[in-house]
Amino acid sequence: MPVKVIAPTPSAYPYPLLIKHLLHTPMTRSPDQEIVYRDLRRRTYREFRERIGRLASGLTQIGVEPGDVVAILEWDSDRYHECYFAVPMMGAVMQTVNVSLTPEDIAFTMIDSGATTVLFNADFLPLVEKLAPYLKAVKTWVLMHDRPEPPKTDFPVKAEYEALLSVGSPYFPFPDFDENACATLFHTTGTTGRPKAVHFSHRQIVLHTMAVLVEYGLTPEHGRFHRDDVYMPMTPMFHVHAWGAPYTATLSGCKIVFPGRYSPEIFLKLIEAEKVTWTHGVPTILQMLLSAPGSDKVDLSRLKMVVGGSSLPPSLARAAMARGIDIFGGYGMSETAPMLTGAHIKTKHLGRDVEQELSRRITAGIAAPLVDLRVVDTNMADVPHDGEAVGEIVVRAPWLTMSYLNNPEASEVLWGGGYLHTGDVASIDADGYVRIADRLKDIVKSGGEWISSIALENIIMEKPGVRRAAVVPIEDVKWGERPLALVVLEPGQADKIDADAIRLHVASYVERGLISKIAIPENVRFVTELPLTSVGKVDKKKIRAGNL
Fold it and tell me: DSSP per residue over 51-64, as a string?
């Protein structure tokens, strides 16, 4: 018997999933909660909501219309936070520009997006002066700054940010529209070719925000996020919506602290002064935090931190736990908005064997709510969930980018077989924990065996005196490929650790059956630093190209 569909009442509100609706809860529950920018400004959520209206009103007055792309070049700030809401809420599209790219790539991303309005921090004035002649679509420039007076320039600035808000109305009538309308876009820094643009709708961002709250609220003990937390990003806000956390934190109504331009010193200062309890970042940021001068004098025991972007080394996780940080891994990518998994430890595994607990904290974790995650072979068949068999991670979730902007060929590859292909090789165990083995392009294929560069890096970093390590494949006549290990030592260790010491250290793990003998690297090179990407990950693209 067919199910009878009951038509809605004509006056019923269909409630599209729009970013503006994320504001209902904080404005009801915590309108007087603080939003802090460094040691420069403190405002309440009530003021934040008024400023969103003023910004949208001001942008409308200078010609921004629904569907226009508004590009942002800014450090992590309260102004950026306002743009996260005002720009998409008025029906425009916010482009978060990766300011750490080369000038040529920054220009490409802004041309590719079709941005017509640019809001930029005064620190980037020399950059925009250089790029402006190439950005033919840009009609309007808006200056942001923290200085007593704006910089003197002949550059054709249409308005200054605060002046723009001063003439705008806080009562801007944010309209309803299709929840599938594009809200944001940014470019992912791939390993080959130009950056590719991913885009997300209002519906996708709202669903991602809700799923993050569920994922971090379901855990009964560790890694829990709640409205009494104090949130500070340690991931740039141009990078994957700062992992979605500014939207999540705003919906929760918690205190938010923005650090501005990054440095370990400002992070430590704000953690101590503002009692920060929740953050996120890549492993290199965590390492900088722990090793910065004066770090040992700052109490980090309140801090909960999810680490993603690249594998969390056991040695680094151990050092963080020794400082009292509730550390754990997460996994996602630019194309996935980004959350796919979280390494929340099941209660049965907490507080027992420390090393067993740590071994789960450093995994990618378990698939988050609404995420259909599979590990498959080349025929798209699921590999056994035994923690040993490896395959590529493919996923479905309601917030994944549907395509690359202006790149249909790459979009077809991304969504081959109806699942988004991550390009990451992993295993999955009986408890559902995903362990990333490597990127497909970083696996060392040697003599018929696959060597995980991540596993070998983690082993090398377990040796006392080693600060960082990176492993990439290099061509070998006999074996096809062999691992090249680049090692950064702690100060004062250069006369104590040589290549043989590294090889003997890896050999000890071979003897324990933890890695194959074929993984022992003949090629060990000591370097003073490793190249990093614009978001702080080790840049293996440069290493493979020999650009050290």
Answer: HHHHHHHHHHHTT-
User: Is position 450 annotated as part of the catalytic site?
Assistant: yes
Q: Which among 450, 462, 479, 481 is annotated as catalytic?
A: 450
Q: Is residue 121 part of a domain?
A: yes
Statement to judge: residues 461 and 331 lie in one domain: no
CA–CA separation, 133 vs 135, rounded Å?
A: 6
**Residues 525 and 505 placed together within one structural domain of the fold:** yes
Q: Which two tokens stand for residue 99?
A: 């300011």
Domains in the chain: how many in total? 3
Which pTM value belongs to this model?
0.87
Q: Which domain holds residue 357?
A: 200-439
Of the three residues 439, 458, 493, the one that is the final residue of a domain is 439
Sign of torsion over alpha carbons 346, 322, 304, 471: negative
394 forms beta bridges with: 374, 421
Where are any strands of DSSP class E within 272-430?
A: 278-281, 304-307, 326-332, 339-342, 366-367, 372-376, 391-396, 404-405, 420-428
Q: Of 346, 445, 496, 517, which residue is the catalytic one?
A: 445
Is there a catalytic annotation at residue 445?
Answer: yes
Among 74, 82, 274, 335, which one carries the catalytic annotation? 335
For this structure, is 243 an active site residue?
Answer: no
146: left (phi over 0), alpha (psi -120 to 50) or beta: alpha
- Does residue 364 fall inside a structural domain? yes
Whether residue 489 sits in one domain with residue 356: no
Identified catalytic residue from 25, 44, 60, 188: 188
Amino acid at 123: D
Walk along the chain (548 residues) and give the pLDDT tens digit of each residue. Answer: 566 767 778 788 999 999 999 999 999 999 999 999 999 999 999 999 999 999 999 999 999 999 999 999 999 999 999 999 999 999 999 999 999 888 999 999 999 999 999 999 999 999 999 999 999 999 999 999 998 888 888 999 999 999 999 999 999 999 999 999 999 999 987 555 689 999 999 999 999 999 999 999 999 889 999 999 999 999 999 999 999 999 999 999 999 999 999 899 999 999 999 999 999 999 989 999 999 999 999 999 999 999 998 889 999 999 999 999 999 999 999 999 999 999 998 888 887 788 889 999 999 999 999 999 999 998 999 999 999 999 999 999 999 999 999 999 999 999 999 999 999 999 999 999 999 988 777 778 887 677 888 889 889 998 999 998 989 888 888 888 898 999 999 999 988 899 999 999 999 988 888 888 888 999 999 999 988 876 677 887 788 777 66
Q: Are residues 487 and 434 in the same domain?
A: no
